[in-house]
Amino acid sequence: MELGDVSNFIIEGNAPAAEQWTQSAIDEGMDPLVIVNEGLIPGMDVVGERFKNGEYYLPEVLVSARAMKWAMNLVRPLLAETQGASLGKVVIGTVRGDLHDIGK
Predict the structure, then answer these.
(1) Is the pLDDT at 82 greater than 80, yes or no?
(2) Considering the entire predicted model, what is its pTM?
(3) Which among 22, 53, 65, 80 has most CB atoms closer than 10 A?
């Protein structure tokens, strides 16, 4: 099970494959932080770079973000269980009626 696989699923916007890979990694006992930091985030970094360079447009970014969201829905509860010191709170706001997930 290679972390590059899930990165590619994110880049391709293949949400079902990203979700399935993430579930398999969890079932095999892979550290959730490793999944996020070395698998999911690098994939979105590539998407962001491609968007910046004009290779990807907004629809591709949204499809990749959906794949990331599906995978994160599996990892998020496991991350919440980990013990760690709180560094504070982050407050995020959006304009009322702003429906997209980009930048949030």
Answers:
(1) no
(2) 0.77
(3) 22
